[in-house]
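FORM 12-B: Structure-to-Sequence Request
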């Protein structure tokens, strides 16, 4: 069998600001499971909960390829509502980094403006004699030098303002911590064109619509997981005998075999390994009934209790 998804449940939680409420820890869990399925695999994570009205809510999603890569490489870790200090620390670190970047841009702009001033402005103030001694040069004519210098100063101020206005914005602190993926200090993350200390889970989620269809497999056979939770014995031959007696006599052996949990149990029986291909054909194709030999094998297993 091929693993095509994972399913989990959580207590009811209602967030009026989010149409799809998935917390960061669930995104990390889904990304890790999705990565094991391989690139491009049709892997979907389904979450089950309850609405404020008490009805069952089922929603499906995938984690984007970029989100999976970030999780696998350790670039992000899940934020937690019980530890909002981690979010605050990440935001403060990003603020400090942005401030340092801004100071660097301003210093570079100032150096560039100083280097761009024409030599005539300086020559209007100081001249050099042939003997190498510095002497005062003739004062510039009215309208020269000073006006040009004022114009350059104005350009410098405008440039600094432009640099300040384009400084990276810091994400809002009002975002709930449990919906944030904290960026590891070893990585640099850009969200919507600006450096970001955290990534909201909405940026890495892909919603998957759930279609309502009638499936040809049944679910009447006892579930091994439920038996284990109750501390009871796992399903075995006696359960197969009871299932075939209840459903096979009414609908035929092939229809009785169209049960997922029953098929899982049968595939785990070594002596039925050669018969499972014929069983699968009979389950998938109503025009391919089991022959008497395969039915006898199943009956022998059921009576071995």
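FORM 12-B RESPONSE
SEQUENCE OUT:
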């Amino acid at each position: 069998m091929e693993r095509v998804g994972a399913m989990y449940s959580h207590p009811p939680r209602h967030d009026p600001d989010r149409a799809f409420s998935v917390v960061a820890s669930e995104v990390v869990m889904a990304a890790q499971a999705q990565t094991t399925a391989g690139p491009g695999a049709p892997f979907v994570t389904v979450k089950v909960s309850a609405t404020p009205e008490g009805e069952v809510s089922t929603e499906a999603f995938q984690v984007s390829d970029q989100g999976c890569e970030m999780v696998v490489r350790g670039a992000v870790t899940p934020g937690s509502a019980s530890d909002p200090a981690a979010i605050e620390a990440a935001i403060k670190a990003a603020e400090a980094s942005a401030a340092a970047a801004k100071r660097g841009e301003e210093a570079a702009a100032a150096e560039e403006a100083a280097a761009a001033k024409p030599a005539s402005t300086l020559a209007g103030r100081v001249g050099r004699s042939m003997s190498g001694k510095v002497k005062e040069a003739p004062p510039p004519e009215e309208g020269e030098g000073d006006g040009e210098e004022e114009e350059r100063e104005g350009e410098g101020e405008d440039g600094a303002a432009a640099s300040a206005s384009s400084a990276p914005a810091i994400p809002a602190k009002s975002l709930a911590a449990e919906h944030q993926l904290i960026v590891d200090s070893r990585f640099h993350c850009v969200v919507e064109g600006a450096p970001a200390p955290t990534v909201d889970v909405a940026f890495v989620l892909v919603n998957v619509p759930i279609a309502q269809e009638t499936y040809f497999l049944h679910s009447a056979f006892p579930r091994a997981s439920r038996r284990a939770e109750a501390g009871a014995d796992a399903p075995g031959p006696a359960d197969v005998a009871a299932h075939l007696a209840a459903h096979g006599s009414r609908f035929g052996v092939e229809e009785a075999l169209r049960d997922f949990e029953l098929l899982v149990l049968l595939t785990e029986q070594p002596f039925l390994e050669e018969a499972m291909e014929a069983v699968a054909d009979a389950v998938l194709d109503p025009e391919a009934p089991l022959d008497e030999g395969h039915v006898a094998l199943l009956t022998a297993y059921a009576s071995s209790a």
